[in-house]
Amino acid sequence: MIARCFSLFLLIFLLTSCKKDSPKVPLIEVDGKTGMLAAVNKLREAGCKCGQDTMPPAPLLRWNDTLAIAANVHAKDMFYNNYFSHTAPDGSVPIQRAKAVGYTGGSVLENIANGYNSLTDVILAWKNSEDHCKSMMDSSYKEMGAARANEYWVQEFGKP
Known about the structure:
Largest sheet: 5 strands, mixed
Structural class: alpha+beta
Low-confidence stretches: 1-30
Strand content: 15-25%
Shape: globular
Number of helices: 6
Order of helices and strands: HEHEEEHHEHHEE
Distance between the termini: 60 Å
């Protein structure tokens, strides 16, 4: 009996002590309330071209901490699980992930990007992509949250 307990203890000790530490990921809120929000609102305030469509100025967005949490969760998940998609490996989509962290709005649009090191570069990439640009300019969305995990960027736009 004592030998079994010792063996079990030794096995648990070895499993936990040999476990690889998770990589340290710089989880950056992208200076959300000032940086990302200001960049998107600057675009909305001026209006822009998204592909062939001219988008008129749109009302400014307000920051939503719950959408920022949803963005952070998805950015970290993509980084740690090495994928890049609006649909997570568990099958969840943006509205489901937002609701899971407490978002009460009725609709969520999501922009994702990978491989960009600066806010300026990722905003320019989204602006130059017709669908991403239209998401940032959609006047029916009133709030946003955003996050970054390493080079994985996520914007969540919500309708309260």
